[in-house]
Amino acid sequence: MDKKREREIRTLLLAGFGGQGIISMGQFLAYAGMLEEREVCFVPAYGPEMRGGTANCLITIDEQQIDSPIFEQPDVAVVMNLPSFNRFEYQVRSKGLLLVNSSLVNQPVQRQDIEAYSIPVNELASSLGNIKVANVVMIGALLELTGIIQAESIIDSMRSTFSDSKHNLLALNRKALEKGAEYVRYLSSKQRLAV
Amino acid sequence: MVRKKVLMKGNEAIGEAAIRAGCQAFFGYPITPQSELPEYLARRMPEVDMIFLQAESELAAISMVYGAAGAGARVMTSSSSPGISLKQEGISMLAGADLPAVIVNIMRGGPGIGGIQPSQADYFQATRGGGHGDYRHLVLAPASIQELADLTWEAFALADQYRNPVLILGDGMLGQMMEPVLLPEEPPPLVDKPWATTGAKDREHNEIYTLHMGMEDLEKHNQRLAKKWEQIAREQVRYDKFMLDDAEIVIVAFGIASRVARRAIRMAREVGIKAGLLRPISLWPFPTAAIAEVAKQARAFLVVEMNLGQMIEDVRLATGGLVPVELFSKITIVPNPKEILQSLCSLARRTGCKIDEAAIKEESA
Amino acid sequence: MKTVFSRPQALTNKPLHYCPGCGHGIIHRLVAEVIDELGIREKTIGTCPVGCAVVANEYFNVDMQQAAHGRSPAVATGIKRVLPDRVVFTYQGDGDLASIGMTEVVHAAARGELITTIFVNNAIYGMTGGQMAPTSLLGQFTTTTPYGRKKELQGSPIRVAEMLATLEGAVYIARMSVHNATHVMRTKRAIKRAFETQLEGKGYSLVEILSTCPTNWGLSPVEATKWLADNMIPYYPLGEIKVAAAVEGIN
């Protein structure tokens, strides 16, 4: 992975339908960032322009004190459904990264100045026997491509925030992270969509 | 035991900090975007054997606060803008009766029902004593979740110290966002409250009252209160400086707007603009002297606030016409750093401040 | 020499400011006597209304708080919740309780707050100078009903005791009167039972007390007692309106 890009990535936008676990994705990332003793800030969808069936959140992970919790052009955008894709493809900063849930988005990425990956996270999650971990598969892909957080920190954040009755789900989540990472490793070498 | 940071939503951090500050009772009424605070306390207060009560209205909630404060308890209520308007009756009562209490306003846009978007439109109401009569109370404006927790804790100490209500002024985004926070562990020391109505055992009976029928009585009462508020004004001015040492343009911003302003200032420095930030933490008392001092060397001020321009009046009073003071205003939208940067560039050009035009061209290319 | 009459411990020696023939003085004394008899003076906290009794904090020799207009039941709730072993009462008039403070009293009663309300109903606003109260009678002349209260314009007077009696949390509700000695003694018994209801932790208690306002009614004190008996009692029936099963054993 490109080390330079790793340094530059500090702002992420996650978007999708309510119920796709968008907010949880953001919270796992922020919590994991905190466990790695970095500065983090998580802003859930808020304000009129963000309402109406979609869920969004902004996450900043930084080595130094975070100034603005909001930003216009994220370094990374993760879009889990078509409305989010339509809305946020053009918000990613130039040379930024766009991760698309291709299970629900069948349109090609138009932008040529960003790096984009299409990942069928719903199918990948189903192959693990539980479509509910599609969001975690996506986190796995994100971590593999950016190195912004250690996968183990995500598991630790789940361990800290899951109720005891859900701790048996940690193994499945670990598999989901690996599944996403594995898929983009394969993609990186085969079918990078645009650079 | 090593204290560990926890990731908390602003509204919940206020609740946990209040518990750790020894808050004995919370009375509130639901309203977006602060409902997570009463919800959090509804769960947590019984765990620590303290009182949570959902009141029938904000009027009732603040009156319960008055009763409990008068009975000597550490007590809190919270709401958002329209609800805070309703609470003004009780806040005026608390101020008039010298009662300590902590009030939280997680602001949303108005006027009227307005919306649920974050806003800073209650600055005037908060800093001028929003109810009837002539009164003041501390207004603390946190800009991070850590500061929300720290200032909530401190608000209880200050309320007790001065026997006066203290207002925490946040906004919907601070209430909803999450950041790591190190929570306080020990409550501020308890103070003696010999004036409290706890039952007249082995003493004269105590009275909590705000009625002073005699013309001279009321005059004297107000003059005595004024002395207390003058003391608070002397002792409790709080503000934060960022890149101010060589600043030609000074941004004044509080709360969430100040966070965005910091980012804009870093961006401005990259294009050669010497910008800095003076962030009032106490909105009342306002850091008038600090701003006056900075005005001696600055060439221009930009006030960034999420309202039509309210704090700017205090900044203008403080700068006394020495330098131009301009407004960057969004009412119910948290501004983004780029927009503020544009205002900084424009202001720099018009006031003859240093600016690296080549760097700007390069940036936009 | 044997003392047969003295000021109750629960009253201060401050002269009352109430008008001649006003019921407040009698009712203050009844509440104070009950507090003395129950031996609770040192653990009782009262609230004053906005209205003629706004300075009751100077008359009751117990800890007192002045509430904003109508908010007494909420203020008392705040006190009682943080000091659950104390005795807390609200002293309210008809404007304070039945108009601006109706919400607070309904919800305090609905929650079954362990407080006692002394509700003085004299069918008029006294302190502000004789305006219509929610309990003013149909046809009654006040400064804001100069042509008499009309059902079509101002609605009918509210029977607070009956209304609150419908709430589960209200366990002892009585309506009494202080227009003559017999009724004064009955009123005292009801006040005592209300305080005992609180002491026993049974729920919310309220005694509505029909009272006189000669000044604003434009009558002499004697005429006023007659006016109360002839006009108010037929509309506001006296007696214990609600004695919940839990309270039956008390007194």
Q: What is the 3D form of chain A?
A: globular
Judged by helices, strands and strand pairing, the structural class of chain A is alpha/beta
Question: Radius of gyration of chain C, rounded?
Answer: 17 Å
Quick one: CATH superfamily of chain A? Pyruvate-ferredoxin oxidoreductase, PFOR, domain III
What is the first-to-last residue Cα distance of chain A?
14 Å
**Overall helicity of chain C:** 25-40%
The two chains with the largest interface, and their residue counts, are: B-C, 41 and 37 residues
- CATH hierarchy: architecture of chain C: 3-Layer(aba) Sandwich
Order of helices and strands of chain C: HEHEHEHHEHHEHEHHE
Strand content of chain C: 15-25%
Residue windows where pLDDT falls under 50 for at least 5 positions of chain C: none
Q: Calculate the terminal CA-CA distance of chain C, rounded to whole Å.
A: 32 Å
Number of helices of chain C: 10
Low-confidence stretches of chain A: 47-52
| SS class of chain C | alpha/beta
CATH C-level label of chain A: Alpha Beta
Helix content of chain A: 40-55%
Task: Describe this protein's structure.
The complex is a heterotrimer of chains A (195), B (365) and C (251). Chain A is of the alpha/beta class and 195 residues long. Chain A has a single domain, classed as Pyruvate-ferredoxin Oxidoreductase, domain 3. Chain A contains 7 helices and 6 strands, in the order αβαβββαββαααα. A 6-stranded mixed sheet of chain A has the order 2-3-1-4-5-6, sandwiched between helices. Chain B is an alpha/beta fold. Chain B has 2 domains: 230 residues, Thiamin diphosphate (ThDP)-binding fold, Pyr/PP domains (Rossmann fold, 3-Layer(aba) Sandwich); 125 residues, Rossmann fold, CATH 3.40.50. Chain B contains 13 helices and 15 strands. In chain B, the strands form 3 sheets. Chain B has a 7-stranded mixed sheet with strand order 3-2-4-5-7-6-13, with helices on both faces. In chain B, strands 10-12-11-14-15 form a 5-stranded mixed sheet, sandwiched between helices. In chain B, strands 1-8 form a two-stranded antiparallel sheet. The model of chain B has no long low-confidence stretch (mean pLDDT 96). In chain C, 38% of the residues lie in helices and 17% in strands. In chain C, strands 2-1-3-4-6-5-7 form a 7-stranded mixed sheet, with helices on both faces. In chain C, helix 2 links the parallel strand 1 and strand 2. In chain C, helix 4 crosses helix 5. Strand 9 of chain B pairs parallel with strand 2 of chain C.
